[in-house]
Automatic annotation (TrEMBL):
GO cellular component annotations of the record: cytoplasm
Identification of the protein by name: Endoribonuclease YbeY
GO function term, MF aspect, one: RNA endonuclease activity
Cofactor: Zn(2+)
GO BP annotations listed: rRNA processing
Function as written in the Swiss-Prot or TrEMBL entry: Single strand-specific metallo-endoribonuclease involved in late-stage 70S ribosome quality control and in maturation of the 3' terminus of the 16S rRNA.
Cofactor: binding comment: Binds 1 zinc ion.
EC numbers: 3.1.-.-
Gene3D superfamilies in UniProt: Metalloproteases ('zincins'), catalytic domain
Keywords carried by this UniProt record: Cytoplasm, Endonuclease, Hydrolase, Metal-binding, Nuclease, Ribosome biogenesis, rRNA processing, Zinc
Major subcellular location class: cytoplasm
Length: 170
């Protein structure tokens, strides 16, 4: 698995964000049974920049906590065979890795939402990455049923990593 993480926000975290993000990405890939080595790109940015991406790509002119840009045209959640019909677009030619997609995180939202929900920034960052990774694996939360499935998967994943609501940043 290759997980590229760029923190252009200038935010400093009390934990190793690259290691944490890589750990969560790997855990989601394993939990979802991804049969390929995969590549994920993660950008940590500021509120103004994520607002610009949200406006440009989703037509929503407001800041958000995380954006997900899946590369695989899933017809069913975690049915990775969807990538087999579009090898040229879905697989990295040099490494052969599945290009799963891109995640954009808002550093300010990691901080403010952690405070609002009464848990650590580490847990909030991990939660947002897990949420976004499920989107990259074809999940959505448009209906109550879909939202319940995603919420359960997120909680199970974070609990399994020991990233409970009372975990610390360090």
């Amino acid at each position: 698995m290759t997980c590229y993480v760029e923190n252009e926000s200038g935010a400093k975290f009390a934990f190793d964000e690259k290691a944490l993000i890589g750990q969560v990405v790997q855990a989601v890939l394993e939990a979802e049974g991804c049969p390929y080595e995969a590549e994920v790109n993660v950008l940590i940015t500021d509120g103004e920049t994520i607002r610009r991406y949200n406006r440009e790509y989703r037509g929503i002119d407001r800041e958000t906590d995380v954006l997900s840009f899946p590369n695989v045209p899933f017809e069913r959640e975690s049915d990775f065979s969807a990538a087999e019909g579009c090898e040229a677009d879905c697989f990295q030619p040099d490494s052969g890795e599945l290009i799963l997609g891109d995640i954009i995180l808002c550093a300010g939202r990691i901080e403010s939402q952690a405070e609002a929900y009464g848990h650590s920034r580490k847990r909030e960052c991990a939660f947002l990455v897990a949420h976004s990774m499920l989107h990259l694996c074809g999940y959505d939360h448009e209906t109550e049923e879909e939202a319940a499935v995603m919420e359960k998967k997120q909680e199970d994943l974070l609990d399994g990593l020991g990233l409970t609501r009372d975990c610390r940043d360090v």
